[in-house]
Amino acid sequence: MEKVNVLAQYMPPEAAPVIAKWIDYFQCEFKISKSRATKLGDYRHPFKQLGHKISVNNNLNTYAFLVTTVHEFAHLLTWNDHRNKVKPHGEEWKVNFKRMMKPFLEKQVFPADLELAITSYLNNPSASSCTDLKLSRALKRYDMLADHTRLEEIPRHSVFSIKDGRRFKKGEQLRKRFRCECLDNGNIYLFSPLAEVLVLSTGT
Known about the structure:
Largest sheet: 6 strands, antiparallel
Shape: globular
Order of helices and strands: HHEEEHHHHEEEEEE
Strand content: 15-25%
Radius of gyration: 19 Å
Number of strands: 9
Oligomer: single chain
Number of helices: 6
Distance between the termini: 55 Å
Helix content: 25-40%
Strand order of the largest sheet: 4-9-5-6-7-8
Mean pLDDT: 88
């Protein structure tokens, strides 16, 4: 019961008992991690005497935390079925992600707009759930970072900073990412449209 109570602080409470059962069933070490800039969650398959390990960032909103958790458990199930013989986000993972998301859709734990985005993604999973832009946008609407803005929402040539304090100027979009110049060292970096930035000046 303690496990359910802890999980309920990070995800919709009605989802917590299901995830707690999965942790016990798969004998998985489940860790709630500090925020990581490069990933929302992580799965590590058994190695030597160690079992399955899943970690999920503690700063995600409740719906993003649940989707990320299911994402990582789908990796676990795929590893159990196929070991390392299939692609990380190949068809096998997509089938498992869809299967494992089903109980939460049946329980209607997501708001209507999120349920629609997830269902749409499951019908045509062209990317991993964490990099699917439509699903990511829907999830980010429930973030509480009022002082931050998504990069895609600001005009070209705007100057912004990121968490480590570096300043950038927004440039053109190259396929899915924006080309931005770092004003501190002159280097060029590619940013996701969903990157959270602090606007310093608005471009024209």
